[in-house]
Amino acid sequence: MVVNAFDICLCLTLAWLAWQVLRSHDLFKAVVLFISFGMLMALSWVRLQAPDLALAEAAIGSGLTGALFLSALQRVTGNKRGERRLDRNEERHDKRA
Amino acid sequence: MTMLSPSLIYGLTGLLLFVMGLAGLLGCAELLRKILATNIMASGIFLFLITIAHGSGTLIDPVPQAMVLTGIVVSVSSTAVALALACHVQEAARRHDLLQKKRGTVRR
Amino acid sequence: MTNPALHSSAWLIWPVAAPLTGALLTFLFKDHSRRLGLFFAALSSGLGTALAWQILGHGPAHYALGGWQPPLGIALRADGPAALMVMMTAITGLAVSIYSGGYFQSRRRNSKHHALHSAQEHAFWSLWLLLWAALNGLFLSNDIFNIYVSLELVTLSSVGLTALSGKPPSLVAAMRYLLVSLLGSLSFLLGVGFFYKAYGTLALTAIINSLSLSPPTSMALALISIGLLLKSALFPFHFWLPPAHANALTPVSAILSGLVIKGSWYLFYRFWHVELIFTAVGLVPAILGGAAIIWGAWQAFAQQRLKMLVAYSTVAQIGYLFVAFPLLAETSGQGHGALFYFAISHSCAKGAMFLAAGTFFLQMGHDRIRDLAGVRQLLPVSSFAFGLAALTIMGLPPSGGFIAKYLYINTAINQGLWWLALLILLGSGLSAAYIFRAVSAILSPQLLRIRPALVVSASMQWSALTLALISLLLGIIAPLPLALLEVS
Amino acid sequence: MTKGPSKTASALKRQWPLALLLVLLFTALAWAYLAPGPAAVGLAAQVDASLTASGVSSRVTAVLLNFRAYDTLLECFVIFLGVMVVWSLRPTTVTAPRQPQAGAILSSLERLLVPLMVLVAGYLLWAGSNQAGGAFQAGAILGGAGVLLLLDSSPLLARLPKGGLVWGICLGPFYFLVVAVAAMLRGRHFLEYRAPEATLAIVTLEATAAFSIGLCLATLFAGRQPQGKSRGENSAHSPAWEEDS
Lengths: 97, 108, 488, 245
Known about the structure:
The complex is a heterotetramer.
Chain A: H1 5-23, H2 27-47, H3 51-96
Helix pairs in contact in A: 1-2, 2-3
Chain C: E1 7-8, H1 14-28, H2 33-58, E2 61-64, E3 75-78, H3 80-109, H4 114-140, H5 144-163, H6 168-199, H7 204-209, H8 215-232, H9 241-247, H10 250-272, H11 275-281, H12 283-302, H13 306-323, H14 334-364, H15 375-378, H16 380-394, H17 400-414, H18 418-442, H19 458-473, H20 479-486
Chain D: H1 3-11, H2 16-34, H3 44-54, H4 59-67, H5 69-88, H6 104-127, H7 135-151, H8 155-159, H9 162-185, H10 197-222, H11 231-236
């Protein structure tokens, strides 16, 4: 096997995606980028003749891990929203008092 | 650059991802981001291990591949634990803040 | 195997398999988790002791799992040090288990949150048994990837145990512990990859025997060492330990300080037990260890809470575990003896100390050192246990700690490492200072103003005392453990 | 590969000592990777030589479930442990069971997808013995099906008895232990099985492991122990940590 443009592109995209995951301001965006990162990782493993692993990575490493992150994110931000509501209620309460 | 084989490039990418994940783990403040960073580190290591399977011979070595499969499951398990714990930590912090706030208003 | 002295023995798998089964069963049968937990703790302890006895009688053993010899398969391997570690886990583990039985019962009796305490106890038993299995697996495994999997088991179960109390400080500590530990595991795994690339095998003894320092193998060793140092909380990496150990439930603190730390330390020992490395960077762990001794003692002295004091004392004692690495370089066996003697007596003494401190906490509702004065009248057995354990931590005769420090200083002087001997003396003085602060409060003759009813059970007091007595006894029966250590 | 370090440096402007350290680390790693050292041939040839005795023709499956089955045994316990830890974290809060908006699209998608996913999982399991696929992939697909059901708050999972869930989670590791110890009772080593009966052992091991892994993954996604009626009672006690040690 020789290196072709595809390999190099894939590697660069992987590194770029990882970078975006770490620095994007929005956590939701980071998680979505992470899922696509996992998919590309699976693609590179197909390229390295490891289809078993590509399947596992796509299903577990990218899919399920991504789902876990999304649900955790929802729980955290959902709470933030709840907190805001609680604060507002408290304020109202204070004013009335 | 004919001496470069694909496995070499992917191996280096794996190491790079490891270091980038480390940067995220040490440099980012949010817990969720730190956990994402450990996942990126793990992916980098897995990529590195898979390139080892190509090694020197023509045969592909199944042992590193089995290691990666095991590693993926271990990693998803620890990610799930970390995420659950992070949610609890943030909830605890929120409750603490609320408590402080309440105390503050009472004092006022 | 290449070494004809090794014999194959099925005893090696049982200290792992028995607690694993116990973890599953306690998880399944929620209503009987205490009885099942105690039964499997006793069983695992007995099997660990049997293994040590076997090794002492018949020499080192190995066991090819699935009948596949390495490098294709995974083998377990037990020599003297490994058997000693399994034995240490058996003793401390059994005492902590007996303590936990009474601990959860007392807590439930004195609280209105029955459901909550039952849930905690249920989770405790299955996590603890799984941790026990993973530790035994760690001590006995001879395959570096398998060690990685066992390390992850140890990490996740210790994190679960740390977070069990549910208090915000312990949750935060557990989170930090998990992140540090994950970093350590990943570093270890990358090192495993480098080793496999270089040697084409995962068998630890094969790798160590053919080790030669080249860029890839040095990198592997560095990655593995850093990973293990992170997990053992040696000085610059110690920041996560005190909050995690001090805020956990009492039996958990004893387990973390007494046993879990020793797991990664033991692995470090196995990787570094090569003369080659000492010539290159042998002094690095010793210097870090020296810093840990002084920093940990200093911090322990400044603490206001008893459990925090004991936790910082662990930071200092981890220093002793690493400071002796230069001693392993030349001499025949005294350096090893010192190192392992310190490990086992620290495990018993620190376990006893945490158990006693937790008893005070449960009885008094706090662990502020200042306000503990007079506790002796209420809890004479636990106070006595704390005092006895303190003897070992300070290294006074006739305790196990004294033997360890005597061996340390003796070996250091024989090798002309005067600074090391002085460092160990200085460390002993510092530990005497902070221990004295705690002991003088606990054993003070001051009378309690109010005498609350006793809420702790007898099993909690006596298990701590037994463990403290064992740490003392280690000073008297020194030849036996040292003989076991010689088996290799 | 000059791109990597410079990227690391550019993005961590405020933390340049850390960036510098990491650039150095990457250089060291790359150097160790490229530098000459002992290079081994790996275990491919040995795996091939023992493949017929392992009972399966897929090399990765042979390594995972026969040569290095002990790793896989422990790994089943790792994922079981994950569930245990997540369940042991006390619900300290009154907020937040997710409120899934079960749309019509999701429902019909689910009706279509879930049986399909179960079928695919079965196929992967069956294919695993001689080509790509195996217990983990099948388990992951099953877990995905479980996640879909959870997203829709399908009554299927709610109706599942809690005891059944606990037994299902334990089934995989438990069966693994049983197979391992059964081999010892027949005078062999722990986890020792050889062709021809190895095939049966491996297939049943994979099936139970896939089932439990799928269940564990779905449970991890759900995030907390299904508590039925006792839940209200537990969350009412949330500040209990304030009183005890």
